[in-house]
Amino acid sequence: MLSLLKRLWWSWKKVVHGLNSAISWTLMAFVYWSAVFPVAVGFKLFRPDPTDRGLGDPDASTEWQTPRYPRQDISRAQRPF
Question: FRET pair for 60, CA 20 to 30 Å: which of 30, 43, 75, 77?
């Protein structure tokens, strides 16, 4: 009797594992095609370089850009706002 129950339990686990795999693949595909893909296409069409990786000047020797904020010192760091 115990052997039969063990076989049933392991068979049930195999079936449920297969169902779980199918459901997770289906849900992940749905999320990708309904959420991630449209956002990626939107970024590709409307903002070709959102990270500004230095594609502007091909003759530049470096990609460094000077910071746009003033120099930081300890009094600025101690002031909360």
Answer: 43
In order of 23, 29, 50, 67, 68, the CA distances from 32 in angstroms are: 14, 5, 21, 36, 37
Residues 6+ apart with CB under 8 A from 43: 50
Name the pTM for this structure.
Answer: 0.47
Task: Examine the pLDDT at 59 and tell me if it is beyond 80.
Answer: no
- The single-letter code of the amino acid at 71 is R
What values do phi and psi take at 4, rounded to 5? -65, -45
Rounded Cα–Cα distance for residues 69 and 34 (Å): 39
Contacts of 63 (CB under 8 A, 6+ apart): 53, 54
Each residue's pLDDT tens digit, 16-34 = 999 999 999 999 999 999 9
pLDDT of 76: 76
Letter for the amino acid at 68? R
